[in-house]
Amino acid sequence: MPVSTTPPPAQASTEPPADAATPPAPAASPAPRRSLIHHADFRRLWGGDALGQLGAQLTVIALPVLAVDHLAATEWEMGILSAAESLAFLVIGLPAGAWVDRMRKRNVLITADLVRGLVLAVVVAAALTGHASMPLLIGAALVISVCSTFFDVAHQSYVPWLVGLDHIVEGNSKLQSTQSVAQVVAPAVAGALLRVVTAPLLIAINAVTYVVSAFAVGRIRHREQPPAPETRRPLRVEIAEGLRFVVHQPLLRRIVACTGIGNLFGTAAGSLSAIYALRILGLDTVAFGTVLSAGAIGGLVGAVAADRLARLVGEGRIIPLSAMLFVPAAALPPLAVVLDVPPVAVLIAGGLLFSFSVVVYNVAQVSFRQRLCPPALLGRMNASVRFFVWGTMPLGGVLGGWLGTSLGVVPTLWVCAGGALLSTLPVVFSPLLRMRDLPRPESVETTA
């Protein structure tokens, strides 16, 4: 996401001005030795997230199969579809953060789930009646992208309020574990089901899970109080505060650069994964689903081990160390066409390594920035980070489609492996590699 953004002139503090609305402090942490499993509201959020993730992972395999096998999508069309799935983070990501900070985040989560479920229902109806098309899929992806932008910003900003700052790592680890389990189970189930049902029916399951997720989140009792309308300032001022916080934190800048470059080339490679597996390697849908599921086991292991690894090697050091694993993970898939090893085994190995490294990296860096950021800025900070690190994803989709058409799929995958190497440089050549403990808010404020 090499998007150039010029922040307003620096101020002496990253805190909002005195006249800004001050939200209540984050929810008091449960007793130190009491797991979040005993936190009723977190269980509701966790359960809703689990259902949404499970359904979304069914669509991860069903949508490309629908596009490639049923609509004969080209490399360029798959690139555009991939770009549409994340375009909103680039276009409205920054104002979304300011808007979320003005709203009750629980309501944002519910609305986003319901709209995503409705859009998927339209896609299913069109497919079952023979009216599906690539423009329809791309349009649906754009709407879902907008909803996901608001959902993700609100979700990352809501967790600290709900569980308390002392339990952020545990909360993020549990949520990442759920996502990893969904990534393990759903693609294999989807691949097997596609032998007996059509792709639209799998997408219909996702529509239902979004509705059930909205119901689960709606049962959360915790109600954060948004700032009073009369205390709001111009949108550009509030957006600038979030940008300024990210840009003025040296460690955050490096993390954002690593994640943004990684997402650029990761999305470029991912946009061609279905064509590579189904057409070039000749895998069927069952094998494709098995590859995605088996590879995701690495993410499950990473989610379970992330907290322990951070304590073992250091919460600062774990960020560049996990990023180094991006490179071999990206190099393994294009090797599947030349190694004297079953392609499925090579793809699974690459997926295992990739998902493990990404989950460990994400748990560490997301927890760091949630803990570092003042509560009043959480939505805008998360939106600013998402703007930079997810804003590169639509560019990556277009890049993947263009390179795939111009160079071919396999050469494009090698270009993306080189991009993975490039992405590690900002964090490998940084103070993070020598830091065991990451700075806390008080240490940042005293050195500002």
Automatic annotation (TrEMBL):
Query: Which sequence ranges are marked TM in the entry?
Result: 80-100, 255-280, 286-306, 318-338, 344-364, 385-405, 411-433
Q: Which Pfam families match?
A: MFS_1
Which keywords does the record carry?
Cell membrane, Membrane, Transmembrane, Transmembrane helix
Location within or outside the cell: Cell membrane
Keyword Transmembrane helix (UniProt): yes
What protein name applies here? Answer: MFS transporter
Q: Which CDD domains match?
A: MFS_MefA_like (cd06173)
How does the UniProt record describe the way this protein sits in the membrane?
Multi-pass membrane protein
- Listed Gene3D superfamilies: MFS general substrate transporter like domains
Question: What is the protein's major site of localization?
Answer: membrane
Instruction: Give the organism, scientific name.
Output: Cellulomonas biazotea
Q: Where is the composition biased (Pro residues)?
A: 1-10
